[in-house]
Every structure is written in C-alpha cells, then in structure tokens.
Amino acid sequence: MSKKTGCPPGQIRLGNRCIKGMHTTLFDEMTHKQKKATVFLDNGKIYIRVNGYGTMTEKKGYGLPIAVETWDNNLRALLWTDIDNEDPEIISMENAKEKIKKSIQKESTGLKDMPSMDDDELRDELDYYDDLIHGKTPGGVGTKDTRRYYDLLDEMEDRHML
Fold first, then answer.
1. How far apart, in whole angstroms, are the C-alpha atoms of residue 29 and residue 27?
2. What is the C-alpha separation between 35 and 60, in angstroms, rounded?
C-alpha cells in the first residue's frame, strides 16, 4: 500500500476507491520525445494522466487533466487546459458521430484511378504519401494529401493488403 494514496502499487485513489491504470507512452513524431501516460477506467468514465500535467485542485502527480464521459446521453471530453483554473473546458463530441458524416467525393482525391492500380503501384503511392505526411519528404502537406493517404490505406485494407 502506498502511504500517500492508501492504494496498492499501480493504482490511484479516485474518491473513496482505488482504481488500476493502464500505462502507455505518447510519442511526439516531430521531436521524437516521449511522455508517459496512464489511462484509468472508472464507472463508465475514462481518465488520462500524462506525467508533468495536472489540475488546480490535485496534488502534483495526482491530477487527471483529461476525461471522457457521457452526459445526458452525449459523449463529451473534459480538458483541464489551465492549471490555475479548476473548471474544465467541455467539448461535445456530438458533431463527430459517424452517422452524420457528410460523404467526401472520391474524385476530389483522385480515387477514381485506384481500382486500376496494381498492388505494387498502390504500395508505392502509399509509401510516397506516408513519407510526405511524416516529414521524410520535402514539401508541405495539404488536406488533399492527407485524404489521399487515408484513402490509399482504406483501399489497401479493402484489398486485404494490410
């Protein structure tokens, strides 16, 4: 048992209960630096702690500055983005529902030519966009590039190449 929390190792106190966390590492693709994070699940809510980040009301190392919950049957994220303010920013996820997604015209990214591509051409084009998006190829990345990249991934998945 931890003297600070009264919980077994690997668990934190949330209210009057101890809950277990799942550890992960966040990787910054630009700087190649890492941050340790822990995800906690409790009573239908998801909490995330990232080392070095906290909330106004919790002791150093114990804050959970990110939470995901449902409220009045709506999914929302709570973000404590200012350590000197105890109120979170609340972001509704209702506009991210898949059922309300507007379809993107395939022609806008040139997908009409994908079925005629053989598997090697598809892999080559995906490699190009992968390098572009991850900064390995000079040049800027636009929305069309990003869409094309994900459309290529979808096509590869449809062909069972992934």
1. 6
2. 16
| Nearest Cα to Cα of residue 105 among 144, 159, 133 | 144
Q: What does residue 93 show for φ and ψ, rounded to 5 degrees?
A: -100, 10
**Residues 88-116, mean pLDDT to the nearest whole number:** 71
Residues with Cβ within 8 Å of 53's Cβ and at least 6 positions away in sequence, in order, are 63, 65, 83
Q: Which tokens is 60 given?
A: 């150093």
Model confidence pLDDT, tens digit, residues 14-45: 778 888 888 899 998 889 999 999 999 888 89
143 vs 154: CA distance, rounded Å: 16
5-10: which pairs have CB atoms within 8 A and are 24 or more residues apart?
5/62
Q: Which pLDDT value is given to residue 105?
A: 47
The predicted-structure confidence for 117-160, as pLDDT tens digits, reads as follows 788 888 888 888 888 777 766 666 677 778 888 888 888 888 88
Query: Is 76:90 a contact under the CB 8 Å cutoff?
Result: yes
pTM above 0.85?
no
